[in-house]
Amino acid sequence: MPDSFHQARNFTIYGLNQTDIHVNKDQSTEKAFENLQREIVAGASHNSGERYDAPKCHPETRKAVLSNIMSWVDSDELSKIMWLHGAAGAGKSAIAQTTAEESHREGKLAASFFFSRFSSGRNNKDGLVATIAFQLCISVPVVKEHIIRSIEKNPTVFKSTILTQMQTLVMGPLSNMKPEDATAPRLIIIDGLDECLIRKDQAEIIEAIAKSLTMAHNSSHLRVLLISRPEVEIRQAFDAGSVAPLCTQLTLDHTFDPNKDIELYLRSHFETLRRRYTLRSTLSTSWPFEDDIRQIVQKSSGQFIYASTVIQYISDPRHNPCKRLDVVLNISPSNGEMPFSQLDALYSTILSACEDYSKRMLDFDALPEHIVKAALNLKGIFDLKSSSPRLPREIFRFKPMHIS
Predict the structure, then answer these.
(1) 34-55 as b/e, with b when 16 or more CB fall inside 10 Å?
(2) CB burial string 378-398: b at 16+ within 10 A, e below
(3) pLDDT per position in the chain (404 positions), as tens?
């Protein structure tokens, strides 16, 4: 058909009806939506198959933190951004997942994106905005037309800066919402920002979100929850003059009494283990002893990842839980097992991220206090075989249990 009108000028077409126009419009809309779909990271959403059985808060734990977040979501505060931050292993992603699930059930979740340094689609900024925009088409249907129209006008928008993408595909379309749409989902969750591998991109994302929120004329109802470790570049971005006025910060520290939640978590899982263990008749009704639980809580140093690793190790159905608990508590030898292999990997990742750590002695002040305390309290973590230039023991020049 296009060849029939090649270089044609000043002609009249008879018989063109409204149906033909609608067909062309529908095809254009469909193409724009297909372009959007091609750019998304399907595994990044809170309910994606890639993230099946993602960690979340144990019932009755983290209630104060979760309540704090949801109160902010429902409020009319001027702070449209919340930065939830804490040390590695503090349970940030579990809180993010639980918040996403609860918000989704209550019809408040607009979109979510969970970064992961180990997933090729989730360790960079490329698909972030497209994924959020795609989820908005589903959760807030009234903005889908505006998002698609924006793509039709600029099909290459996905190659633009994060700020341009946010303005074009997210804040712009959301600004077209009418007052009667005020009850539409309002929360966008971005977890693991520190797992975006290029550090300057982390700051770019923060600045783009803040600037696009400021420029949008109808964004008062929106809330963006950003979750990460308190890395230097990220902290500097949040402290910047253009971001700070829009942001409230929530720190996962001992203010929220994590030890109490960790103890509750341990008791619940030990009770489940007693009920499900095949040879449960061999377990004492007083197992584990109060001192056992106290020791695990103390060694956790406020880090949920330690407690969850212990439970996972002890709960292996192929082994005797009593003997495995003794290994954890250093009562009996491990016989070559590595109960804290997950933590080895976690802290090795943290150490490898420290600039030039193989060339100089690490400054403890450069690491969050909880990471240092938890790492040094782990019996055996410094005995792992590492491909790094120097083992953690050599770097720290301390032995386990030297810091309490």
Answers:
(1) ebbeebbbebbbbeeeebeebb
(2) bbbbbebebeeeebbbebbee
(3) 445 555 666 655 555 555 444 546 678 889 999 999 999 999 999 999 999 999 999 999 999 999 999 999 999 888 999 999 998 889 999 999 999 999 999 999 999 999 999 999 999 999 999 999 999 999 999 999 999 999 999 999 999 999 999 999 999 999 888 877 778 899 999 999 999 999 999 999 999 999 999 988 777 789 999 999 999 999 999 999 999 999 999 999 888 999 999 999 999 999 988 888 767 667 777 889 999 999 999 988 888 988 998 998 898 888 888 888 988 887 555 666 666 666 776 666 666 665 544 443 444 444 444 445 444 444 333 333 333 333 343 333 333 333 33
Distance, in Å, from the CA atom of 15 to the CA atom of 209, rounded to the nearest integer, reads 49
Answer yes or no: are the C-beta atoms of 82 and 243 closer than 8 Å: no
Report which residue type is found at 314: I
* Global pTM exceeds 0.85: no
CA 269 to chain centre: 24
117 half-sphere exposure, CB direction, 13 A CA radius? 14
d(CA 256, CA 63): 9
List phi, psi (to 5°) of 99.
-60, -40
